[in-house]
Amino acid sequence: MTLKQVKVGSTVKVARLTGQGAVKRRIMDMGITKGVEVYVRKVAPLGDPVEVTVRGYELSLRKADAEMIEVE
Fold it and tell me: How far is CA 32 from the centre of its chain?
């Protein structure tokens, strides 16, 4: 399952990142790495973003980036 498919209000743990190059680096720079818990706060109904809380920080991700984050 990917982060894009997670329901609002759920907390999940990152299993792995499937992105490549600069995209993967950008996600990792946000503090999203393997084993980190991510809380999904809000998802825009039609487009971007997916708003999450990671390590106490509130972040916004593009849905394309959220697809590259596999969770358990």
Answer: 7
| Side chain identity, residue 38 | V
Distance in angstroms (rounded) separating the CA atoms of residues 50 and 21: 21
Q: Give 48: exposed, middle or buried? Use CB within 10 Å, 0-12, 13-18, 19+.
A: middle
Q: Is the pTM of this model over 0.85?
A: yes
Q: What is the pLDDT, as a whole number, of residue 45?
A: 86
- Provide the token pair at 27: 């996600």
Report the Cα–Cα distance between both ends of the chain, in Å, rounded.
7
